[in-house]
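### Sample
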Amino acid sequence: MGSSSKNIEQAQDSYLEWMSLQSQRIPELKQLLAQRRSHGDEDNDNKLRELTGKIIGDFKNYAAKRADLAHRCSSNYYAPTWNSPLENALIWMGGCRPSSFFRLVYALCGSQTEIRVTQFLRNIDGYESS
């Protein structure tokens, strides 16, 4: 039990860290977007690209931490304990269910399996594989 609560705390800490970074970057992003509308200079576009890269990098780091913690306790991946009941309900109503992830993985793996079986059978029958 202690390990599970430690994983939950780590997941929550990484979420709070990510949200803190987002709250720091959003005002800067809004400012750059406002400047872009009024001036439209190329230097501003470079700053926007750089900031967007940072924001995406922040999310990638959060997702990587979350995925690492999901290996230890997968339920936190699908229904984080720090979400309110309303947030969890909205996630489910929006179609982000654990079964959706499983269906996606099955569909991707299933399509590859079907292709490989067909190629294998063609090789057995003496047909060329394309």
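Residues 97-129 form one domain. This sample (DOG1) is used throughout the tutorial notebook.
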